[in-house]
């Protein structure tokens, strides 16, 4: 272990030096970035956790639904003239992008459930898992083929701007220590929070939400109580995919780019967030998403771009070892 | 009982896969070997394999390469009895280069292919060098710039065999020197941040520029991004306050444009400079940025003709690919003449090493002749000899590229 002492000390010293060098300005910038990307991850993680809660299935294809949502949003943007010359005002354009992407992703999620998972509901658990992996690669390769593997530029920062200049999405809403929190940052965070609030209301305050919780608790008993289990499962996939579609559009508006590999990359991060927060726990997914976003931003800023994934997935492993149920997950009671 | 049957089934399946793979592999090997060593009749038409990223994240660079290659074919076929035909190979320029390897094997076993232009990326050449050598092909690339492809560097042996790789572009040692010199003497920057994308091409260029700048007293800091993650906001936040210029030696122009947009969106106004991998006026349009681009004789008639036939777009990244086609075509023609209408890949490869093109024919702005030994600090056998340098372009407000160095 002694031979690692010097490199570790050097790394820690470099981190300390970087923190000092970036100062409070750097801290607030990284915090802002972490909250924004964490909000996106939280929305995707909710889909993972909801499906796991109901079906005990890790839906690896969920990240690709997020990717498809980003492309649907791009399609709507281009249909109305593109970011550089939109044919309708930007507020209704953005609302339309969200609406079409959310509905489209929702239906895609339901279709995937019906085709790839429902027939395997009574099969051994490994079967739907493999099926999920198959759907992941099917979706990714299909989009790759359709887009020739190219990066697709939203050019969202130019939306509403004149002559290709930056548009109102970059107007600051407020400042913290001279660091602007712009319209797009605020839009992403507030939309994510609003969707999460709606979800929590749906799950904990409505009849349908009660049915979802009942199916998650005991599928057979719920069926015996007269709950349409198939409908509940389909709706769960629909809701999770709607959230992923919204996250996809938000990603496109925030980052300005989308491409076929996005789903795999962010899907893994969101899965990590769901596990860190406690797989099956809705508040856990939100918390996990935020934490992973923050870890990613701070490790990129203070340690280095190449360390971000090492830190995030190292945390995943650490959590699985120390606290396998995640931060807010509960221990499953096994009947004996 | 069932468990035993299952185990036997799995074992049998594994054995079958091994046998099938070996059989397939050994069936391919004689075909590739036959293509490599066969003596072919030249006839009226000869075939060149063109390996380039038709699809993939760098497709916007592959497009210009294909356009210039076809322009070269058209130009050659108008004035020569021996006509050219192409077999394209889409290498995608993706991470881990599986497509590049597949294309290399496909070209190797296609006996019609007498010479190869491409592939586009240095890391693709690293992974396919042994395939080309086994097939007796010496690819002529119009865009691979990594120094180690032609010259051993400290800690890195030469990555191809002399005589089995040529390029019609200066290498990164020259590009690095060019860029560092421009940053220091013209832009007069004293504090530079270099952000590489963790690919071989990027890391080589990054190391070269860093070393050159540090020698003249410029403060250089470094960071890395991944080609898979276009969220640069936190990398941008980590740029130290005193930084005056950010150098991004990347291979994907769309990433460069994204980086520029996110830099400005984060209120960072440092000058951005890209390498030849970002040289794409249709995609990277960050006003006020600089790009290091391939050499081009913009005043030549050939250049003007190409521009006219492509809606006024010069597609400069592809011009050295034109030169590589002309090199291959000239080599094939001479080998066919020397063989009295018959030739082999080896004979053509040896002719490539001897090809000399005038400035008017090369369109690069200088004549082409390949070195057959080490020269200077960075050049080795297969590199361009004589005066050859990258151009530096500034991106204007309307997105056009203007040569400034």
Keyword list:
heterodimer; A: 336 residues; mainly alpha; two-stranded antiparallel sheet; 72% helix; globular; B: 405 residues; alpha/beta; Rossmann fold; 2 domains; 7-stranded mixed β-sheet; 3-stranded parallel β-sheet; 43% helix; 16% strand
Describe the protein's architecture and organization.
The complex is a heterodimer of chains A (336) and B (405). Chain A contains eleven helices and four strands, in the order ααααβββααααβααα. Chain A is mainly alpha-helical and 336 residues long. Chain A has one domain: ABC transporter involved in vitamin B12 uptake, BtuC, CATH 1.10.3470. In chain A, the strands form two sheets. Chain A has a two-stranded antiparallel ribbon with strand order 1-4. A two-stranded antiparallel ribbon of chain A has the order 2-3. In chain A, a hairpin with a 2-residue loop joins strand 2 (172-176) and strand 3 (179-182). In chain A, helix 2 (62-79) packs antiparallel against helix 3 (90-117), helix 2 packs across helix 8 (229-255) and helix 9 packs parallel to helix 11 (308-322). Chain B is built from twelve helices and 16 strands. The N and C termini of chain B lie far apart (78 Å). The chains are: A mainly alpha (336), B alpha/beta (405).
Strand content of chain A: under 5%
Q: How much is the average pLDDT of chain A?
A: 89
CATH-level-2 architecture of chain A: Orthogonal Bundle
Write down the secondary-structure element order of chain A. HHHHEEEHHHHEHHH
Strand content of chain B: 15-25%
The CATH topology of chain A is ABC transporter involved in vitamin B12 uptake, BtuC
CATH class assignment of chain A:
Mainly Alpha
DSSP helical segment count of chain B: 12
What's the overall geometry of chain A?
A: globular
Question: What kind of sheet is the major sheet of chain B?
Answer: 7 strands, mixed
- The share of residues in helices of chain B is 40-55%
Q: What is the count of distinct domains of chain B?
A: 2
Q: Count of helices of chain A? A: 11
Q: Which pair has the most extensive contact?
A: A-B, 38 and 37 residues
Q: Describe the largest sheet of chain A.
A: 2 strands, antiparallel
Number of domain units of chain A: 1
CATH class annotation of the largest domain in chain B: Alpha Beta
């Amino acid at each position: 272990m002694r031979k690692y002492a010097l490199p570790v000390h050097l790394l820690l010293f470099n981190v300390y030096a970087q923190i000092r060098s970036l100062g409070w300005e750097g801290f607030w910038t990284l915090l802002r970035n972490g909250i924004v990307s964490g909000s996106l991850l939280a929305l995707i993680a909710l889909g993972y956790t909801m499906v796991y809660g109901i079906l005990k299935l890790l839906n690896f294809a969920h990240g690709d639904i997020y990717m498809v949502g980003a492309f649907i949003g791009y399609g709507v943007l281009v249909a109305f003239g593109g970011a550089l010359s939109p044919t309708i005002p930007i507020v209704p354009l953005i609302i339309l992008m969200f609406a079409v992407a959310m509905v489209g992703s929702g239906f895609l999620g339901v279709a995937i459930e019906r085709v790839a998972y429902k027939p395997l509901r009574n099969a051994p658990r490994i079967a739907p898992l493999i099926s999920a992996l198959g759907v992941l690669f099917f979706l990714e390769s299909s989009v790759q083929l359709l887009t020739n593997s190219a990066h697709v530029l939203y050019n969202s920062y130019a939306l509403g701007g004149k002559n290709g200049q930056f548009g109102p999405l970059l107007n600051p809403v407020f400042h913290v220590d001279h660091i602007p929190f712009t319209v797009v940052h605020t839009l992403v965070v507030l939309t994510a929070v609003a969707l999460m609030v709606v979800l929590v209301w749906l799950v904990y305050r409505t009849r349908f939400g009660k049915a979802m919780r009942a199916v998650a608790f005991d599928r057979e008993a719920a069926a015996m109580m007269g709950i349409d289990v198939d409908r509940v499962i389909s709706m769960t996939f629909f809701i999770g995919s709607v959230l992923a579609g919204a996250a996809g559009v938000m990603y496109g508006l925030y980052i300005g780019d989308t491409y076929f590999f996005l789903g795999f990359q962010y899907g893994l991060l969101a899965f990590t967030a769901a596990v860190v927060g406690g797989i099956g726990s809705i508040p856990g997914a939100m918390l996990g998403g935020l934490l992973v976003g923050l870890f990613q931003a701070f490790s990129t800023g203070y340690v280095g771009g190449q360390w971000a994934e090492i830190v995030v997935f190292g945390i995943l492993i650490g959590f699985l070892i120390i606290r396998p149920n995640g931060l807010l997950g509960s221990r499953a009671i096994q009947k004996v | 009982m069932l468990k035993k049957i299952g185990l036997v089934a799995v074992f049998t399946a594994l054995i079958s896969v091994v046998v099938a793979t070996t059989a397939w592999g050994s069936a391919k090997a004689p075909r590739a070997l036959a293509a490599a060593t066969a003596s072919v009749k030249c006839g009226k038409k000869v075939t060149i394999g063109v390996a380039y990223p038709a699809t993939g994240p760098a497709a916007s660079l592959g497009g210009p390469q294909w356009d210039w290659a076809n322009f070269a074919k058209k130009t050659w076929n108008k004035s020569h009895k021996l006509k050219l035909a192409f077999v394209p190979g889409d290498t995608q320029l993706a991470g881990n280069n599986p497509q590049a390897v597949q294309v290399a094997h496909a070209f190797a076993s296609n006996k019609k292919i007498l010479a190869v232009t491409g592939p586009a990326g240095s890391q693709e050449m690293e992974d396919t060098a042994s395939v080309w050598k086994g097939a007796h092909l010496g690819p002529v690339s119009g865009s691979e710039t990594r120094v180690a492809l032609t010259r051993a560097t400290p800690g890195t042996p030469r990555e191809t065999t002399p005589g089995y790789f040529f390029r019609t572009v200066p290498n990164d040692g020259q590009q690095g020197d060019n860029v560092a010199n421009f940053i220091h003497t013209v832009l007069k920057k004293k504090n530079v941040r270099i952000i590489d994308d963790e690919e071989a091409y990027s890391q080589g260029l990054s190391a070269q520029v860093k070393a050159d700048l540090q020698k003249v007293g410029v403060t250089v800091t470094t960071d890395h991004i991944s080609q898979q993650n276009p969220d640069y906001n936190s990398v941008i936040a980590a740029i130290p306050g005193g930084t005056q210029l950010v150098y991004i030696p990347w291979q994907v122009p769309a990433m460069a444009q994204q980086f520029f947009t996110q830099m400005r969106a984060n209120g960072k106004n440092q000058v951005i400079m890209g390498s030849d991998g970002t040289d794409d006026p249709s995609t990277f349009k960050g006003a006020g940025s600089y790009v290091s681009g391939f050499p081009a004789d913009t005043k030549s008639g050939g250049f003007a003709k190409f521009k006219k036939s492509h809606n006024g777009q010069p597609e400069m990244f592809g011009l050295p690919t034109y030169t590589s086609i002309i090199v291959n075509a000239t080599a094939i023609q001479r080998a066919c003449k020397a063989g009295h209408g018959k030739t082999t890949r080896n004979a053509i490869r040896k002719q490539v090493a001897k090809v000399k093109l005038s400035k008017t024919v090369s369109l690069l702005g200088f004549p082409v002749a390949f070195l057959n030994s080490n020269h200077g600090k960075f050049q080795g056998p297969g590199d361009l000899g004589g005066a050859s340098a990258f151009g530096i372009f500034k991106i204007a407000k309307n997105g056009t590229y203007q040569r400034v160095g």
